[in-house]
Amino acid sequence: MTAPLITLDRISRVYQTGRFEVRALDGLDLTVERGEFLAIVGPSGSGKSTLMNIVGCLDRPTAGRYVLDGTAVEELDDDGLADVRSRSIGFVFQSYNLLPRTSALDNVAMALAYQGVGHKERIARATASLERLGLGDRVDHEPTELSGGQQQRVAIARALVTEPALILADEPTGNLDTASGDDVMGILRELHATGRTIVLITHDADVAARADRQVHVRDGRLVA
Amino acid sequence: MSPLDLIRLALARLRSSRLRAALTMLGVIIGVGSVVALVAVGQGATKGITAQLEGLGTNLLTVNPGSSTSFGTRGAAGSATTLTIDDATALAAIPGVAAVAPELTTQKLVIAGKENTTTSIVGTSAQYGTVHNQTIWQGSFLTQPVTDLGLRVAVLGATTASDLGLGADAVGTDISIGGIPFRVIGILQSKGGSGPLNQDDQIIVPLEAVKSNFVSGDSVRSIGVSVATADQMDLVKAEITTGLKSRHGLGAADAADFTVFDQAQLLTTVNSITGLLTVLLAGIASISLIVGGIGIMNIMLVSVRERTREIGIRKAIGAKSRDILFQFLIEALVLSVLGGFIGILVGLGATAAIGAIAGWGFVFSPATLVVALLFSLAVGVIFGVWPARQAARLDPIAALRYE
Ligand SMILES: Nc1ncnc2c1ncn2[C@@H]1O[C@H](COP(=O)(O)OP(=O)(O)OP(=O)(O)O)[C@@H](O)[C@H]1O
Ligand SMILES: [Mg+2]
Known about the structure:
heterodimer; A: 224 residues; alpha/beta; Rossmann fold; 6-stranded mixed sheet; 4-stranded antiparallel sheet; 7 helices; 10 strands; B: 403 residues; alpha+beta; 6-stranded mixed barrel; 17% strand; binds adenosine-5'-triphosphate; binds magnesium ion
């Protein structure tokens, strides 16, 4: 049996705001195997986004150990975290987070630029990634010229283009209508079918139901 | 990202907000443009003045009567009457002296036909032309026999000739100087000087003619001495001083009753003044360059604020702080260097225009351009690095949440 992709061991994240101390995560344990399609579900304020930031290497836990793909993340410096984000993680956000006034192609190619991939190869791989998501005829469109569903597909193309070990999606269907949301979930399922590890964060039970496994977060801990 | 990628990114960014980029660059354009133009004006003026001074005569020493201990009191020199024609003759015997021209000058009303003008009448020797670099345009200059005899002949400066309405055909005709008829034997080539350096508005006549008709006595106003070669200047100057002192019965320790004035001295003084002026002008112009830099910093800070979300996205996707730092720094550099380039073009245009108007032509040194470009590069770095650091230091989570 291979080692799990993600191991979170008694992770805590405490926010210090003035006189208040918020325990957003409180000794959370979680293991995600390679090739899993996991949904993290929980009510508002339960700590889902905090967890996603830590899993996504955007933030460090206050306490606990986090091993991603064999790397002890909490030991890395800022540049090390940036490297892990660049190579191992593909983000899909609720609000798409595409660069404005930038073509779909450049949005996708940008992810490769930070890996030091040359210009020609970037364009070729970004084009291929967009085509794979059915956006071959939209490469030159800027975000304002695309529908919400199309923008989210560009965002998925961007997450995929670096061939990351983990796709991390935070409420990817939150801003979309039912049809586009279904479409995006269909794409994630397809990606899962090709062997990708996907961690999905949502408060929507219907969306969560399409994942293989669900874990529930409440007050910064997993509940059964 | 490679530097090329970053430059490409910066250029795309500037293309997408052309007006803002243009207005931001304007400060640097004006700064660099004025530095280039003003330095060129300084250099042009120096060149112009130098040319005029050299036009007064090559390797020229001027001996004036009266003593002077410093530049400041030289005004008093010339009023005394201690120099004589015989002094001038004696100076000609000093080794290294190529030509000597005693000068006795007076102002007179000159009439030619219906035209008249009041101008300087310079009584001198035949060597005046050599001493003062004068070339003849029409007719001939004074000659030794003519000056020895003190004939009433006149050589007109170009301006004087045109003031009197006289052209090439005037040679051989008579004009009236102070009521006495003189025959025009030549007209000089214009030297284009101006103000006190103007040698075009004068009439040159034999010294004897001035003495017998206008100014009595043996004294002269000044003696122009042309030295054969530049490296003999100091030696000849010393020889003149000792020679004239002994002629005037003065000991080596006594103060001279005359002043030997070196044109090279004046040139050095003038050059140091114009040099100082150039530095001053460039200094003032660089202030506008700094203002331009502040403009860049201002717009870059605004840009960082506006693009906080973009920075967050880039960091989430794998950009290191360094990548963001260089992205914004290079954007500032592209603005400042592009502004510098345009500024140089504008400055060169202004230089050409001013040079054409002032008449010293197109003077500029490539060194100025290199310095201007380096300065705009420095402005970009100095004023771009702080906003870029602000951008690089943003926390990705906060930046992503920023609306
Ligand atoms: N930067 C912060 N500073 C202080 N407290 C914070 C910060 N971020 C989150 N919190 C607190 O941590 C707790 C968990 O927040 P988090 O954003 O993880 O919730 P969530 O599960 O994502 O909620 P939602 O479903 O509404 O997005 C909340 O009580 C929140 O107020
Ligand atoms: Mg959240």
